[in-house]
Amino acid sequence: MHEEHAQVQSNSNTKLAEASALVDGIEEKSSVVDKKLLDAEAKLSEVNRKNAELDMKLQEVEARESLLQKERLSLATEYAYSLQFIIVSIH
After folding, report:
1. Does the structure show a pLDDT above 90 at 84?
2. What is the pTM of this model?
3. What Å distances lie between residue 56 and 35, 60, 63, 66, CA to CA?
4. Cα–Cα distance between 34 and 36 in angstroms, integer?
5. Which of helix, strand or coil describes residue 91?
6. Rg for the chain (alpha carbons), in Å?
7. What average pLDDT score do residues 43-52 get?
8. DSSP string computed for 60-91
9. What is the C-alpha to C-alpha distance for residues 76 and 72, in angstroms, rounded to an integer?
């Protein structure tokens, strides 16, 4: 009976040590996952910041493009009037 109790105690200790090792492994993996998650969140934040900068630059380019189109139209109109005036003056 004493030997059986010792065997049960030994098995219990072995299983407890295995369970403890599993918990340690899980905690270590959880720590690695948490670090990777923080790194991913930092990268996402950087991507969002750069995306916002690019959006602002795109809006600036679109505004300049619109202004240039208006100036081009104005110059074309002015050129057409000037050309018309010259043709009328010649005749």
Report:
1. no
2. 0.60
3. 32, 6, 11, 15
4. 5
5. coil
6. 39
7. 98
8. HHHHHHHHHHHHHHHHHHHHHHHHHHHHHHH-
9. 6
